[in-house]
Design a protein that fits this description.
about 80 residues, mainly alpha, elongated
């Protein structure tokens, strides 16, 4: 799959630059709108919001616990 936000042609192939829009005097938004191209964007359903929040909270709590354990071990080793 292409990158999120990639510009795709009607066949689904990624396009680098919009053909015929290289002229700096042309409005890029108008040129894109008339070029038959689209942008692929992936969205997550709204009902997954709290699941993602709890997963992220768990990851950060685990990482902060590991960092606290490492700091405790390192300080005890330095003062002994």
């Amino acid at each position: 799959m292409s990158d999120p936000g990639a510009v795709l042609d009607p066949a689904g192939q990624e396009v680098r630059g919009v053909p015929g829009c290289a002229d700096r005097r042309t409005d890029p938004f108008e040129c894109f709108a008339t070029s038959n191209l689209h942008i692929a964007v992936d969205y997550q359903p709204a009902d997954r919001y709290w699941a993602f929040q709890w997963i992220e909270t768990g990851i950060f709590l685990a990482l902060s616990g590991l960092l606290a354990d490492f700091c405790t071990w390192w300080l005890r080793r330095r003062t002994a």
